[in-house]
Amino acid sequence: MTTIEIVADSRKWKAHIDDGPAARDFLAQLPLTLTLKDYGGSERIADLPRPLTRKGAPDAVTPRAGNVAFYASWGNLAIFYRDGHQSPGLSLLGRPDGDPMEFAGADPLSVTIRQAERRIEHRLPYYDVARWSRASSMNARKADGVLRLR
Q: What's the rounded Cα separation, in Å, for the pair 57 and 40?
């Protein structure tokens, strides 16, 4: 599973993208700047630069509030904030954190979608943390027994 960020002005959402062929195609297109438009009072949609694969996808899916999906018939990304109806050609990609109703609204929403930065944290026993924290050349920071590499 890969974490992405959906950013609109001062708002930021995280979403978790599954590991499947369509999801990998989607991640390969990031970063993207899209305008999400309301569709049917249940989802936000935007055209993708190129279509995603349907390999391994079911014939039809019934989306639930919070699903991030690709609709093959139109070639668009969809973020559902309400439950949808069974849709042939829909591939589920993942799910955002938080309340999906935050995506509701009639006004177009300009967003940037990108992979989230990964933070590497490694817990070491106390005696190792003390040794590592003295090594200024390691470009590391220690707090509460956690070594954070920069």
A: 24
Of the CATH numbers 3.40.30.80, 3.40.50.1370, 3.20.20.70, 2.40.100.20, which one belongs to the domain with range 2-115? 2.40.100.20
Report strand pairing: 90-96 vs 11-17: antiparallel
- pTM for this predicted structure: 0.77
Is residue 16 within 8 A of residue 2, CB to CB? The reply is yes
Backbone angles phi, psi at 143, to 5 degrees: -150, 125
Q: Are 101 and 41 in contact (CB under 8 A)?
A: no
Query: What percent of the chain stands above pLDDT 70?
Result: 79
**Token reading at 61:** 């899916």
